[in-house]
């Protein structure tokens, strides 16, 4: 009888509104409507021909009023959208954010009582000339309710698009990033449901190690299969969530679709087919236990990834120098431990600081990941000057001046600064275990996420920490001697290679002019360091003039450099530039697809491309098995690509995915590739 209940409530709402108007009594205690203020906002007003553009129906309810979700629940009705579009332009169904719940007289309503924005994708036909105007109009009818009355309303909104270059402003990007974060993400894996004895049990794939948030709730889109007002029980059982509640009045033939809420404004779009669903073998371990387990797993992965970073060419020289400082034998046990702890504190502080910045930016709607600062050429200039300075220091041109407050700390201040430096210049690299660990950190509560970033720093600091606390390891270090100066000069070679790689990245990001500016800044910085080194050779201090010149060169270089105009991304031979539309088309054609995401500043990415991806053997294997290759370049931080990477539980690049024909989900490949691994794809 739920259909009768629904019709009765809706008719009463109309009668109440009509009767109030007929008697001349305003039904709205807050004044005359409309009670939902709607604005049609385009992500770009100049979409390119043959592309898509997202429109947001930005809606603001009056205080005390609410609109309805696509499935309104026990009462009300969803908004109806009537588009008037230019010839060839098509509009998708609206994608709604996760709603809220409102119970009135035992009736469950799925509503929005705060500002929200359904998103609609317009497809622009190819072949339109630049400057062509595309008027877009929308007439919408909807029901809006307060605790006292429901009122049917309508609205007309419009905008005019002009065919152009598809550029998106920073302000628009930020707004749409925030709106998209509120829209549930599709879950590729299918669920299953079973109706029996007046109950419905739904099994939804969910990673066993992932935390179970407090706000778990299943909003059915399919009507009639679930009793909306009945309480739901949720159990996390292995790699699935089992939701059980009272069945609705309809039969259980399905399929059943809905939204699984997994956070305050996070959800997954779920589709479940009818079948047999076993009851959960154990109850959910609780939110705290789930978060703790997921945090410990991610913490361990981050530690392993950080430990591996020590062999990278930019970190290894710094670690080696610190080890040699212990080998000199002038430190007692207490001093060695203090230096080890200070070095660790510097590493952990930078990792946690970068992690906190990532979490803050993502909370504001920006799609960023690990090493996000390297997407800005100004940061590349600073890193370039820093690595050039370290290279010249290792080469013996000058000694790094030590401030008085560092001297007073007994060496701990210098160790802290060295650890912070090692962590900062290690950001372009990711280890085999870091991708999944940092990806997991982004879905954990922020205290747990910061703990994972701290684990990364601890892993990076472990070698020096062990040297400081284990005397037997220090005794195994070579005895001091003249060889140490030669070894120090040798260590400048990998640091120079790091500077060379950063110069290449700068040229890719800022063009020839930016590269010239960066090299010029490095030349002047080297001259200032040479002056300071000459003073040190005469027994004098480094000198404020040289320090001031270094500061001017660094600030000036970072200020003057700018990103080169974006050009067309060129893929390697035999591959195509990644877009989600191209990936969908290839999958619908039942083609196997290898997708990889890279960045010019990602050392691991470039090594994998050189030794495994861009090889004749791999290209031949892909051609033989008809494996399509899509390349996503994340050098400049494309936000659309960032959201796609985030959807696969990764905090950055590299990310390697293989889509087998007909598979619901991609296979996530390791972050260290081999030719044999790629040759086996598609076989």
Measured between the Cα atoms of the first and last residue, the distance is 55 Å
Number of separate domains = 4
Structural class: alpha+beta
Mean pLDDT: 82
Tally of helical runs: 18
Low-pLDDT segments: 1-30, 282-289
Describe the biggest sheet? 8 strands, mixed
Alpha carbon gyration radius: 30 Å
Overall form: globular
What proportion strand?
15-25%
Helix percentage: 40-55%
Give the strand tally.
23
Describe the structure in brief:
The chain is an alpha+beta fold and 683 residues long. The protein is globular.
What topology does this entry show?
Blueprint: H1 2-22, E1 36-42, E2 52-61, E3 67-73, E4 80-84, E5 90-91, E6 100-104, E7 107-112, E8 119-123, E9 133-145, E10 150-162, H2 170-182, E11 185-186, E12 191-196, E13 199-205, E14 217-220, E15 233-237, E16 240-246, E17 256-261, E18 267-274, H3 287-309, H4 316-327, H5 333-363, H6 377-394, H7 404-408, H8 412-425, H9 434-441, H10 446-469, H11 471-475, H12 483-537, H13 544-560, E19 576-577, H14 580-588, E20 593-598, H15 603-613, H16 616-624, E21 628-633, H17 639-647, E22 655-659, E23 667-668, H18 675-679
Parallel strand pairs: 11-18, 12-18, 19-21, 20-21
Antiparallel strand pairs: 1-2, 2-8, 3-7, 4-9, 5-8, 6-7, 9-10, 12-13, 13-16, 14-17, 15-16, 17-18, 20-22, 22-23
Helix pairs in contact: 3-9, 3-10, 4-10, 4-12, 5-8, 5-10, 6-12, 6-13, 9-10, 12-13
